[in-house]
Amino acid sequence: MVLKEKGWSDENTRRAQLDKPVIEKQAACFGFEAIAEDEKSGKVLTHFNSVAEKYDIMNTILSFGTHYIWKHIAIKMLGLKPGQKVLDVCGGTGDMSVMAAKVVGPAGRVTLFDINREMMTTGRAKSTNAHFRQKVAYVQGNAEKIALADNSFDAAMVSFGIRNVTHMQAGFMEMHRVLKPGGRFLCLEFSKPVTPWFCRLYDFYSFQIMPIIGQLLAGSRKAYTYLPESIRMFPLPPELADILTEIGFRDVEYRYLTNGIAVAHVGTKK
């Protein structure tokens, strides 16, 4: 079944993607496609396997390079310090891990945690920032069940990945669990532009241009159709701030980036 609406979902539809409705209905969404709850993780794995080798270059092309600016701003908001231990959940090819490793230095430690081995392998083999990539610890696993100790990290972050987790709140709760009391949290994710005319332009680019570029450069129109669809099913910034506060983070704040195409949320474990 495919959802009828091709655009930004309403609040009820977004709330239906939270853990309780997904579990009760045993149904999740893969973009605008309604699927069985237990099918999503497999579809996500297939999706990222298909784009792993060209994932980074496609991000740069599709965002006109601005994703690096967003990531640098988000890392600064996280407030890392030398010597700290950092967990990068759904870390993929490791851009955020590398940025964190540069800040925490040789006395610190960055662990990249991702379900997709192909993405991690691709990122680890990249020649850019090779020294820092080799310093990162790579751990394969499901973000809903992070196989790491309670209260063991000074900071935990997830960037452009939590949309792909079947039970999003479970992923956030796991990040909260592994953080030390007073530890910092970051979620960098796509969102809805705040200016109406810019939002319309972004919709045109997302649904008419992006899939064509995906087909021409990455050989997958489907992968770059899923991307804008999944963005439009994700909670808006105030909704996500409430979710994070309910989980147990305090002082949750968020910052709109590039008119709200991306939003960085930060908070602290009580």
Could you please describe the fold and organization of this structure?
By secondary structure, the chain is an alpha/beta fold. The protein has one domain: Vaccinia Virus protein VP39 (Rossmann fold, 3-Layer(aba) Sandwich). It contains twelve helices and nine strands. The chain has helices spanning 11-15, 19-25, 40-51, 55-62, 66-78, 95-104, 117-124, 130-135, 168-178, 196-218, 223-231, 237-247; strands at residues 27-30, 33-36, 85-89, 109-114, 137-140, 153-159, 179-190, 249-257, 262-269. A seven-stranded mixed beta sheet has the order 5-4-3-6-7-9-8, sandwiched between helices. The chain has a two-stranded antiparallel sheet with strand order 1-2. α5 (66-78) packs across α6 and α10 packs antiparallel against α11 (223-231). The longest helix has 23 residues, at 196-218. The protein starts with 10 loop residues before the first helix and ends with a strand. The model has no long low-confidence stretch (mean pLDDT 95).
Quickly list its features.
single chain; 270 residues; alpha/beta; Rossmann fold; 7-stranded mixed β-sheet; two-stranded antiparallel ribbon; 12 helices; 22% strand; globular
**CATH topology category name:** Rossmann fold
Overall morphology: globular
Helical percent range?
40-55%
**Rg over alpha carbons:** 17 Å
Category by helix and strand content: alpha/beta
Number of domains: 1
Look at the structure and give the CATH class: Alpha Beta
Strand content: 15-25%
How far from one another are the termini? 42 Å
H-E order: HHEEHHHEHEHHEEHEHHHEE
- The side-by-side strand order for the widest beta sheet comes to 5-4-3-6-7-9-8
